[in-house]
Amino acid sequence: MSLDDSSIPIQPASPAEESPAPLPASPVAARVEVAPDLRVPWTWLDLFLLAVLSLVATVLFRLLLFGAFAKFGIAPVQIQRSPAWFGLFTLLQQMLLIVALLGYLAAQLRVNFRAPFWRTIGWRGFEPGQVPVAVRYFGFVVFGFAIALIVESVSLRFGNKARLPVQALFQDRRVALALMVMSVLVAPVFEETIFRGYIYPVVARSYGVAVGVLGTGILFGLLHAPQLWGGWLQICELVAVGILFTYARAVTRTVLASFLLHVSYNFFVSFGIVLVSPWLRLIAPRH
Question: In this model, does residue 49 exceed pLDDT 90?
Answer without folding.
Answer: yes
